[in-house]
Amino acid sequence: MHINSPGDVVARRRAEVLGVRPELAAAHRRLLATIWAGPVSPVTLELRRLRMATLLDSTAALWERTPAALDAGLTEDRIGRLAQWPSDPSFSQEERVCIAFVEHFLIDHNAISDDDVNELTDILTAEGVVTFTTALIAWDNQHRLDNALHVAAKTG
Amino acid sequence: MSTTPRLPSAVPGAPANIVTVRRHAPAVMDAFDAMYATLLGGGVVGMDVKEAMRLRNAFASGCGL
Q1: Percentage of chain B exceeding pLDDT 70
Q2: Among A10, A18, A66, A80, which residue has the least CB neighbours within 10 Å?
């Protein structure tokens, strides 16, 4: 007997919701696949996706794990320490800069400075920054859509 | 809200703007543009409603574009 993980259930529910407009769902899947295949580390992307889900209270997204990130070595132990990213030594400089940028974006995107973007560019390159910020808005929208349309029941 | 790009143009000889900056990651931007065109171009929600949503979102987020 196959038992679906909570993440599988979330993915299926989201696919059902987006499937109301199949061509839009396909374009959405293609965008996410292109982002994951891009120049930014899948571990960095996944840590950032999960941090956004926490800050936006997206239970649905927190259940999910992206295979590319797990294949690249991301563990549940590190995911469990994500809230301690500023001081936990397991987080790299790249991960810290990227997570800090995400938090800044979610709290007050108009306060992002030239220095913030320059620091991100030094680490990711311009190609990486365009990929990273496009992923940022894709997940920002997805997390909010999940919450608004109750893709997964809230807990707590 | 400034609209001066913080990244250089990816197109030689062209000024930095929302199109030329995004060309640093052409595959990502092509996929994004395709999704955006699909979103705008069909479905049951009228263009007048979509444009009102876009402008309201731009106003709320302080987007100068």
Answers
A1: 95
A2: A80
Minimal-distance CA residue of chain B relative to A36: B28
pLDDT tens digits, one per residue of A23-74? 999 999 999 999 999 999 999 999 999 999 999 999 889 999 999 999 999 9
Identify which of A35, A38, A126 has the shortest CB distance to residue B10: A126
A31 and B25: CB-CB below 8 Å? no
Q: How far is A18 from chain B (nearest CA, A)?
A: 12
> Between 2.60.40.1180, 1.25.40.10, 1.20.1290.10, 1.10.405.10, what CATH number should domain A6-148 receive?
1.20.1290.10
Q: How far apart are CA A51 and CA A136, in angstroms?
A: 11
What value of ipTM does the predicted structure carry?
A: 0.89
Q: Which of A24, A38, A126 sits opposite B39 (nearest CB)?
A: A24
